[in-house]
Amino acid sequence: MLSPLVQGFVLHFGEMGSRWGINRTVGQIYALLFLSPEPLNADQIGDALGFSRSNVSMGLKELQSWQLVRLQHLPGDRREYFSAPEDVWAIFQTLAAERRKREIEPTLSMLRDAMLASPEGEGDRHALGRMREMHELIELATGWFDELQDLDRERLVELMQLGRKVGKLLDARDKLIGGGKKP
After folding, report:
1. Distance (Å, rounded) from C-alpha 28 to C-alpha 173?
2. 32-45 burial string, b = 16+ CB within 10 Å, else e?
3. Which stretches are annotated as coiled coil (predicted)?
């Protein structure tokens, strides 16, 4: 039986999961594993969440494909146990890398192919221009993200804590260089 605190998190994570592109069951399984102090087997997960063994199995396979759970065996036990990584930063990096692989890279590939096409009229020229803009934005964002991934954790935390201060610093620079006008 889950405590009200854990149950609330698990239920919320299931609902949020459906908004993030995973089903509710997968979200709840992940939330349970994330909060669990020890690895759990499929029977324990099913009992805790009230899910069938087949739903748990499918959910665990999905989480493994996202590299969000670790499979392990415990001494003297033939069952498979699962746990979520302890490090929330590693989880974030894994999620970002998987989303990039599944969503961003196919979009960039499609845009690159589309931009090689010969426009057949004004509508196509307009569409290609818009696709080029989107491609440039996605390339800029992924390049920036790659640079962030290369930072050590402490530097990344410092950068994130700066928040809006970076914008204010750039505004101050613009005032000094441009006499108060933005370039």
Report:
1. 47
2. bbbebeebbbbebb
3. none
Q: How far apart are CA 111 and CA 117, in angstroms?
A: 10
As given in the structure block, the two tokens for residue 4 are: 């009200």
The Cα 146–Cα 167 span in angstroms is 21
Strand stretches in the chain, DSSP E? 40-41, 70-73, 80-83
In angstroms, the CA 8 to CA 2 distance is: 9
Angle at 47 between CA 18 and CA 71, to 5 degrees: 70
Render 62-74 in DSSP notation, one character per residue. HHHHTT-SEEEE-
Which pLDDT score, from 0 to 100, does residue 150 have? 86
Q: Is the pTM of this model over 0.90?
A: no
Select from 138, 114, 136 the least CA-distant residue to 127: 114
Question: Across the beta sheet with 80-83, what order do the strands follow?
Answer: 40-41, 80-83, 70-73
pLDDT value, residue 139: 95
- For residue 26, the one-letter residue type is V
Amino acid type, 13: F
Q: Does the domain formed by 4-83 have CATH 3.10.120.10?
A: no
Residue spans of the chain under pLDDT 50: none
Pick left, alpha or beta for residue 41 (phi over 0 → left; psi -120 to 50 → alpha; otherwise beta): beta
